[in-house]
Design brief:
19 helices; about 450 residues; globular; mainly alpha
Length: about 450
């Protein structure tokens, strides 16, 4: 436990961080791509069911580690304690380079994109600067302002960040419930859902593999549940509250995701889901019920979801780099804690700077796609490490049934294998980004020891 960080977050705050970090823009968008891959409404629901099951198994597996290792830093600390400094560094390196920061950049640009629906001046083609390769659009400026504002808000103290998180999490949860209710009351058609969810006549290995590769979008619309472990050092009674937060928070999100996809299939024909304008299935749903007003309502809801998601990830991600710096595995100044706010301000602003550079670069989304594969590998390594940790520590504060980590390992490993075989261009670059951290680690260690 850190003597610098204060345990101020309650169970309610922790649940808000879990569910708020998970709910971003993905649930309103990725079903279009998934449905095109699987070509079936039944398989679309099967993908979300499987992704939900994997999410819950992974979250509950991490709950055991979080209840027994209550330091800030989460997954980075687990990998260091169970395996070694090198694996932990590679995780932290990849997290800082793109997993956390790239996701935040993508979410903030999504916020700006949907803000542009309400304020057309903000768009990717309206340039404030346009000199050859040097370009700056109003959409980028809006995204930059969002990152900087949220970083400033979180630098004022964890309570400021958590109050914002609670407010936006509550708003977007009720907004999704509102969409589900509106679809059920005003657009749901039993004939439509019957046509959409017809069970395929044949199940073969090829179909299973296609479903396994299609599941990536659904997984990464909710896989940021691990963010709560990054701030374990600031949660009251972590042994009890972190497992509960992971179970309740991830369970709520999985339920909402299943319900809203059921509404998609009950309101919209499959071809409209597959070909939704700009892949925003949520907007297609609301437009079919309320016209242009529904489209604007959806834009506002996605903005709220994106803002809350970015806030949660900015709040939690900075604690990983802070912990790495404390371990002398990253830039030492990032270990500084503001005496008044008890927040790792240098880590927050370093994260903010890198996110801003990714937004200005413009190709962060492609980089993020590459690293998703490496991220899933780290989840598998960490979950496998749970069994090693059990062997070393017989007395545990909390222990989950073997069914959950075993199920996560089997299903996640199968997905990794399918991605390796069927999408090598999607996976190899992500692995290379992680491997590139190996010489950096040795250079860093040599400099530290020297």
């Amino acid at each position: 436990m850190s003597k610098d960080l204060k345990r101020t977050l309650s169970l309610t705050d922790s649940i808000s961080v879990v569910s708020g970090s998970m709910i971003g823009c993905g649930i309103f968008i990725v079903s279009a791509d998934i449905s095109r891959q699987v070509q079936s409404g039944f398989l679309l629901i099967l993908v979300w069911l499987t992704a939900g099951f994997i999410t819950l198994c992974g979250a509950l597996s991490f709950a055991e580690l979080a209840a027994n290792i209550t330091e800030e830093g989460g997954q980075y600390v687990y990998l260091k304690k169970i395996f070694n400094e090198k694996i932990a560094f590679l995780y932290g390196w990849t997290t800082f380079l793109v997993i956390q920061t790239g996701t935040i950049a993508a979410v903030c640009v999504a916020f700006s994109k949907f803000f542009g629906i309400l304020v057309p001046y903000v768009n990717s083609h309206n340039y404030l600067l346009n000199y050859g390769v040097i370009k700056l659009s109003t959409q980028q400026v809006c995204a930059l302002f969002t990152v900087i504002f949220l970083s400033f808000l979180n630098s004022r103290g964890i309570k400021h960040g958590v109050i914002t998180q609670n407010l936006f999490t509550l708003t977007k949860v009720f907004s999704i419930i509102g969409i589900i209710t509106a679809g059920l009351l005003f657009g749901f058609n039993w004939h439509t859902i019957h046509e959409n969810v017809l069970i395929p006549q044949t199940f073969n290995f090829s179909l299973i593999n296609t479903t396994a590769t299609a599941i990536v979008g659904a997984l990464f619309a909710s896989i940021t549940w691990n963010n709560i472990t990054f701030i374990a050092g600031e949660i009251q009674e972590p042994t009890k509250n972190i497992p509960k937060a992971l179970a309740y928070g991830s369970g709520l999100v999985v339920l909402l995701y299943l319900l809203i996809n059921t509404i998609y299939l009950g309101v919209l024909p499959l071809d409209l889901i597959q070909n939704a304008p700009e892949e925003i299935v949520g907007a297609q749903l609301m437009s079919s019920i309320f016209g242009n007003a529904g489209r604007n309502i959806t834009a506002l809801i996605i903005m709220i979801s994106a803002f809350g998601c970015a806030n949660g990830m900015i709040l939690t991600g900075s604690r990983v780099y802070y912990k790495m710096a404390k371990d002398r595995a990253f830039f030492r100044p990032l270990a500084a804690i503001n005496r008044k706010t008890k927040v790792p301000v240098n880590s927050l602003w370093a994260q903010c700077l890198w996110i801003c550079l990714l937004i200005l670069w413009g190709n962060y989304t492609q980089l993020l796609d590459f690293v998703i594969y490496a991220s899933l590998i780290f989840y598998v390594i960490t979950t496998a490490g749970l069994f090693i940790y059990r062997k070393r520590h017989k007395k545990l504060n909390f222990r989950i049934n073997n069914f959950f980590p075993a199920s996560f390992l089997v299903l996640a490993t199968y997905i990794i294998i399918c991605l390796s075989i069927y999408k090598p261009l999607y996976t190899i670059p992500g692995l290379l980004i992680t491997i590139a951290g190996i010489p950096i680690f040795h250079i860093w260690k040599k400099g530290t020891n020297g």
